[in-house]
Amino acid sequence: MERLAASLGAFVRTNPITTDYALYAEYNGDRQAGLNELRAVVVDKTGAIVWADRQTPQDEAFKRLESAEPMTMSVLLVERLSRS
């Protein structure tokens, strides 16, 4: 997770953004298991890491999902980000 966050920060530093923050979210899984991981990072316009989160089936918030589909994972992301 740290490597992903550092990579996003480095990208923003070399590719300036016009907004105050950048969000990167990654939904991981495979055809057999479906989606089984949500990783997200927010950096500010200087590339400094503001927030990072990772959810898997072992995490309580992930367990509360009705199904691990892109839309429910997106709702999980919004909920987690809004509480930080």
Order of helices and strands: HEEEHH
Shape descriptor: elongated
Major β-sheet strand ordering: 1-2-3
Terminal residue distance: 17 Å
Q: What is the overall number of helices?
A: 3
Poorly predicted runs of 5 or more residues: none
- Strands, total number: 3
Q: Structural class of the helices, strands and pairings?
A: alpha+beta
Tell me what portion of residues adopts beta-strand conformation. Answer: 25-35%
Radius of gyration: 14 Å
Average the pLDDT over all residues and give the rounded result.
Answer: 94
Major sheet description = 3 strands, antiparallel
Helix percent band: 25-40%
Describe the structure.
With 84 residues, the chain is α+β, with helices and mostly antiparallel strands. It has three helices and three strands. A three-stranded antiparallel beta sheet has the order 1-2-3. The two termini are 17 Å apart.
Highlighted features:
84 residues, alpha+beta, 3-stranded antiparallel sheet, 33% strand
Give me a quick take on this structure:
The chain is of the alpha+beta class and 84 residues long. Helices cover 36% and strands 33% of the residues. β1 and β2 (34-44) form a beta hairpin.
